[in-house]
Amino acid sequence: MSETEEAPPHPWAGQERQKLQALMDLELVKLGIHIRKMNSPGSPVYRYAENIIPAGLILTSSFLATALTHFYVGSVVLAAGCWWWLAKVQPKIKEDVFMRTAAFVLLTDLNFDVMWARGVLSLYAKLPDGTERVATRRDDWRAYVRSFHGLEGVNLPEQGPA
User: Fold this and answer.
1) I need a labelling partner for 98 at 20 to 30 A (CA). Which of 43, 69, 89, 140 fits?
2) What is the pLDDT of residues 10-47, one digit of tens each?
3) What pLDDT score was predicted for residue 15?
4) How far is the C-alpha of 145 from the C-alpha of 149, rounded, in Å?
5) Which residues of the chain fall short of a pLDDT of 50?
6) b/e map 79-91, b = 16+ CB within 10 Å
7) Sheet holding 29-33, edge to edge
């Protein structure tokens, strides 16, 4: 019988999420979030009120303007409401969903693993030498984070200078 020698564990094994946060703090790695999936009913960060109330206000205002004055006034109110939704409300919703999702997935490894498996998350890095690295659902996010260990130009506080 031959004895196989076990490889020593990776220095970052079990600390990938914390190392990912450190890489994100250094602005080396960027977290990508599928906003549409996370801003849908059933998502842990979905907020009904932020999606339904503004749309309801726009439609109610348009119907009231049409009923109380004229069709053209109702159309103008609807057009103004649509502009307000697209220019003011939707960008704020996207930003809020992104921030809530990032906080949720970076809270625990389980949250990150579940959202990664659903295809909600992606990771992107542009290294100092110009090389780009991307990890999506098909990739192992832990291996992606561990690949930054010992990389020239990547100095995490716990790692020390390269």
Assistant:
1) 140
2) 556 567 888 889 889 988 899 999 999 999 999 999 99
3) 77
4) 8
5) 1, 159-162
6) eebeeeeeeebee
7) 29-33, 121-126, 132-135
For the chain, the distance separating the N- and C-terminal CA atoms, rounded to the nearest angstrom, is: 41
| Token pair in block for residue 80 | 């103004």
Instruction: Quote the CA–CA distance of 118 and 36 in Å, as a whole number.
Output: 13
Neighbours of 75 (CB within 10 A): 13
Whose structure tokens read 């697209």?
86
**Neighbouring C-beta atoms of residue 11, cutoff 10 Å:** 12
Q: Give the whole-angstrom CA distance, residue 107 versus residue 112.
A: 8
Position 37: which residue type?
A: K
Do 91 and 39 contact (CB within 8 A), yes or no?
Answer: no
Q: Residue 122: CA atoms inside 13 Å, Cβ hemisphere, count? A: 12
Smallest CA-to-CA distance from 78 within 98, 96, 58 is with: 58
152: helix, strand or coil: coil
pLDDT at 153: 61
Q: How far apart are CA 14 and CA 17, in angstroms?
A: 8
CA distance 54 to 43: 20
pLDDT at 115: 95
Amino acid type, 13:
A
